[in-house]
Amino acid sequence: MNPISFFDSLNPGWDFSYSSWMFYALFLPVTMAVYSLVAKKKRYLVLLLFSWIFFISFSGQLLLVHLLETVFTWRMGLSLQAVTENGALKRKEKTAAKKKILLTGVICLILLLFILKYLDFTGSGIVRLINSFRIVKTEWRALDLAVPVGISYFTLEAISYLTDIYWEKLTAEKDYTKVALYMGFFPKLIEGPITRYGEIKDSLFSGTAISYENLTQGYQRILLGLFKKLLIADHLSAAVDIVYKWENMKGSVALYGAVIFTIQEYMDFSGSIDIVIGAARVFGVKLSENFRQPFFAKNASDFWHRWHITLGTFFRDYIFYPVSVSKAVMKLTKKVKNVFGMEISRLTGPSIAIFCVWITNGIWHGPKWTYIFYGIYYFVLIFLENLLEKPFLSLLERLKMTERSLPVRVFRSVKLFFIVIFGEMFFRAEALSRGFQMFKLIFTDFDIRELTEHMGEFGMDLQDYVTTAVAFLLIMLFNILREKVPDFGGGFKDLPKPVRWALWYGVIMAIVVFGAYGSGYDAAGMIYAKF
Question: Which residue pairs, CB below 8 angstroms and at least 24 apart, start in 199-203?
């Protein structure tokens, strides 16, 4: 039997996805009730139990893989801590022993992720390469291994946990159940945000009672997320699927597809993160923000400081900084300085580190060449931005302009728009060749009539277009206000109670009446859940 079919047969068939009615009518209320009935010190165990139930609803008995990884991470953490506390060892001996344990732990975690997610991709690629030389004919038989939900997220959390113990930023947790809850807490399991143990442990294990403030703040954030996902992302989902498979595509359709996918992805992912943060807040757990108005960024680098923030900070802390200060890079930088001078050597270390970050970013998203290209695409852009930053500022000075001048801001906004749109076009394409074909058509065969004449054939009727457009404009208005007043959302609690309730009941009615439901809509299809 095919392994993935076997494990699918073990799934109970529950739909506890963040936008399903079962999550809000059954899973979350039952979790809250049991949580409230248990003694404060044991409440984190209730969260662990329901997190495992949540995991089973998606991946069945693949929960065993998750449990094995958490046990392994827990034991390796204790081993690192034992070396740190071993007074008989000298400093260099401790460092060497800890480095050995850390490398073993990280390699094993990455190896498991590689086998489950990337083995077929790598194996088939090697076979194609061998066959291209026509020396020997061979083939790769796909294993189609089943992949536990959220493995890309909780594996990064495991790596950060072990690394922080190695750096002595935190003390290893002796209680296995606490490590298990950290790596499997149900709100953040599927799509993040990627958390650090030291940042979350106090609120996660505090057993905070479900208060009126946490409940209202949590559900308000959930409603915001459902508004984004059901009124915008899910309405656009069918259109994106149709456009990307459109035969005899013209450049106008290609650009339209890239634009609506970018909107869909942002509303789906940021909406899901709103739901995640809100669900955690109900239990008094404060998760890190993962978005900060990314489309108001000034360049590609700033965009990634605002988009999927926790993934970016993970790569910064655990790849960029270690690579930048590694002996090999420092040695190379010194050689470059001696040959090419200070200016070039200044860019060498950061450029190598940024390349490592972005190639890892592309691979992390999944076993597809489009994702790898996506990582390289942003590496090239950010490298060029760093290279041209000083000349650009010098040009502004000569023109007697500043970065706040209106023409500069308009230029940067238009530039960023196309950078993001083209990047997402390749990201969504089924194959790299399709992405390049769409890119080429935009500049060589742009016929606006192809788009206007077929707007009604993209899986959306007039009501869908109106609903999506109005909802999108409201969210963008909200984002503009958040950009100008960072605590804008928090000000709702200061409004008169009738106004607050009217606003939120209006949001609820909009979700119920205009949300995307029924055949043709995959409400459980969270884009970033597959990474």
Answer: 199/288, 200/285, 200/287, 201/173, 203/284, 203/285, 203/286
Please return the burial class of 452, using the count of CB atoms within 10 Å of its CB with bins 0-12, 13-18 and 19+: exposed
For residue 44, the number of C-alpha atoms closer than 13 Å in the C-beta half-sphere is 20
Residue 17, token pair as written in the block? 């996805």
Cβ atoms 11, 54 nearer than 8 A: no
- The number of residues making up the chain comes to 531
Rg (CA), the chain: 25
| DSSP secondary structure letters along 133-162 | TTSS------------TTHHHHHHHHHHHH
Task: Identify the pLDDT of residue 531.
Answer: 62
Torsion of CA 277, 283, 284, 289, to 10 degrees: -10
pLDDT for position 458: 87
Residue-wise pLDDT tens digits, 117-133: 999 999 888 888 888 88
* Beta-bridge partner residues of 291: 307
How far apart, in Å, are the Cα atoms of 356 and each of 301, 321, 353, 360?
A: 15, 11, 5, 6
| Domain coordinates in residue numbering, the chain | 3-209, 211-293+449-521
Task: Report the candidate in 156, 150, 421 with the shortest Cα–Cα distance to residue 266.
Answer: 421
Global pTM reads: 0.91
3-state secondary structure of 496: coil
Angle, helix 63-84 to helix 43-59, in steps of 10 degrees = 130
